[in-house]
Write a structure and sequence with these properties.
It is built from five helices and eight strands. By secondary structure, the protein is an alpha+beta fold. An eight-stranded mixed sheet has the order 1-2-3-4-5-6-8-7, with helices on both faces. β4 and β5 form a beta hairpin. The protein starts with 5 loop residues before the first strand and ends with a helix.
């Protein structure tokens, strides 16, 4: 499977692996960074296991994990992933996304999602992209709703978290036939707003 590098003027997404994951060690230690996730990343050993799982998924062709590099701040920001890739049904999920708090609310996430959605629909030629989010994670739910994702349903108590809580999972989706409208509408306006904010 090809290992893409996705890049625009704001962000660069590079294949995550055991050779570069240590750039994320400090960020991964921020308290409650992945509080709604079933994964543990806050110790070096936990982060290495997390990355090994991502690498295994890449070689099994079920995932493409990325290191997020913020070109504006010249700093590594976090990680994100294409996951649960179903090549037969042309459906994949964007998830396992976490960026340091200093990068949140800066437009970085919108740029990441734009590049990933563009690659999924226009290069891989997939027909649907999904997002699965803890029902309690209102901030992330609002973020994907602003991007044009539609809530398709809620899976009740389907995932255990590290603290033993069993969460409800909101399932959002974008269809390929919806992508052009989203790309030329929501994303164009959203990214341009942050371009003006950052560059004047």
């Amino acid at each position: 499977m090809t290992a893409p590098t996705l890049v625009n003027e704001r962000v660069k997404l590079i294949l995550l692996g055991l050779s570069n994951y240590k750039h994320l060690t400090e960020i991964a230690q921020q308290p409650n960074l992945v509080q709604y996730s079933p994964s543990k990343i806050d110790t070096p050993d936990d982060l290495k296991k997390y990355v090994q799982t991502a690498v295994d998924g890449f070689y099994q062709k079920t995932a493409i994990p990325f290191v997020v590099y913020d070109k504006q701040k010249n700093a590594y920001a976090g990680s994100t992933r294409f996951m649960n890739i179903n090549w037969n049904y042309k459906v994949l999920e964007i998830g396992s996304t976490w960026i340091g708090r200093e990068f949140q609310g800066t437009g970085l996430n919108a740029n990441m999602k734009y590049l990933m959605l563009q690659y999924a629909f226009e290069v891989l030629n997939f027909e649907k992209v999904e997002f699965r989010i803890d029902e309690r994670n209102i901030r992330s739910r609002k973020a994907v709703e602003k991007l044009g994702c539609k809530l398709e349903g809620i899976l009740r108590k389907n995932v255990y978290l590290m603290d033993g809580f069993k969460r409800n999972t909101c399932c959002y989706g974008i269809l390929k036939e919806e992508w052009d409208g989203i790309k030329n509408g929501v994303f164009l306006v959203f990214i341009n707003i942050f371009h003006v904010f950052l560059y004047g």
